[in-house]
Structure formats: structure tokens, C-alpha cells
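DM between two lab members

TW: hey, do you still have the 6-phosphogluconolactonase entry open?
JB: yeah, one sec
JB: this one, 242 aa:
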Amino acid sequence: MSVIIVENKDKVIAKLSEIIEETARISIQKRGKFLVGFSGGSLATFLATGLPKIQTDFSKWTIFFCDERVVPVNNPDSTFGLYKKTLIDSGAVPLKDEQFVQIEQGVPADVAARAYENKVREHFPKANTPRFDLLLLGMGPDGHTCSLFPGHSLLEEKSKWFAPITDSPKPPPSRVTMTYPVVNNADVCVFAAAGKEKADMIKRILVDKEDLPATRVRPVSGDLYWIIDNDAGQFLNTQTSV
Ligand SMILES: O=C1O[C@H](COP(=O)(O)O)[C@@H](O)[C@H](O)[C@H]1O
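TW: and the structure you got?
JB:
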């Protein structure tokens, strides 16, 4: 695991973008495609600023969701809706709607999760567990990541690639989430976090190693990065002005 502490949020975005650019370059060079998972929340705002600045062949990207809210795309809670607005419709990057593997709309979460897993299987036809090139993760103030919340039974899900949740403690309650076997099979996982509101939780995860959802992200044979700014890392031993 690499913990990279930088001066401020802008530098978190710059470092995150650098890792994305390099991981995409390697994947496209090796296999002609880049299969990446996006989270929502603050990560979406980081990507809205960072992605337009990277050098990559966006036509080779397919984007999946680490988690998604089961709401219509025009609902402000829709993570795809957010990316559609900030990246696609704005023309910020040459990505198309079809490059995002989206959840089905207007169906219950369990139906949406099954249908999503089937769509993902089309991209990983022979896999027991899919291996994403890169997963971009966020960490909520309660230590959740994807829609895997502290103490929830979904933390123990071992067979599904994507699972429904209908009692998310953070609204909206209905969501579809990637499960740990998939998260921890990725080539590269990156957490990006900025701001003092995240500082206590980052200490509990990285220093105290409390058993919280984000702590359980440990790629079995991949790389894990935490990119955090000085505010979020204020209870860690090192601070930096990179
Ligand atoms: O609800 C969610 O929250 C997490 C964390 O969001 P943040 O705004 O605190 O960074 C996010 O990673 C996840 O995708 C989202 O659905």
C-alpha cells in the first residue's frame, strides 16, 4: 500500500490524474482497452477537474460503477447522471454515454444488481472474478466505500459480483454495489480524499487499522494507493508539501 500525502485538494486531483493516465496507458498498450470503475461523491468532482487534463485515448475506455444509486439518471443522486453532466454533456472529455456501463432504471435494486452483474460478465466472459484495471474509490465519513457500510451484512458477500442494498444508511437507500471479491481482485485501487472532515476516519483506517469497510480494501495481487491532502492526513505522522 502506498500512502501519498500532498499539500491540498488540487494536488490530490493532480496525483490521482497522473495515476489514472499511467494505468490507462499500460492497459491500452497491453490489451487495447481500459476497464475502470468510478465511484460517486467527492470523487466525481475530482474527476470532473482532473480527467480533461490527462493524455489518453478515451475511445478505449469502458467505465463501470463501483456503486450506483437506483434512481433515474435525471435524479441529482444518480452517479451516472453526475458524470454525464460534468464529463459528457459538457464536452469536457470525448466520452460517450455508451462507454458507461449503466444500471437499469425503474426496477428494484435486486433486479438492477443482477442485470448489472450480467452486463459486467459480458466484459469478463471467462472470469470467475472480474479483474478491473483500476477502481477509483471514495471513503465516506463513516468509513464506507462503494456502498459497503459499517456493520452491514453485505460486507460478507462472497459470491455475487454486484449486490443490491435497500437500507443504505446514507440516502438514497436503494443502491447497487461492487462486492469485496471484485474490489480486491482489481489490478489497482485508488482512494482519493481531501479535507479535515475525513481526517479522523483516515487515522482510524490507516493508523489504528480498525475493521471498517475501507480498511477491507486490500487488493490480493494488485496495488493500493491512498492519495490524501494534509488536512485529511493531519493525524498521520507525516505531512508533506509535494
Ligand atoms: O454514497 C457514496 O459515498 C462514497 C463517499 O463519498 P464522499 O463524497 O464522502 O467522497 C462514494 O465513494 C460512493 O460512491 C457514494 O455512492
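TW: got it. The mean pLDDT is 96. Residues 144 and 213 are 5 Å apart (CA to CA).
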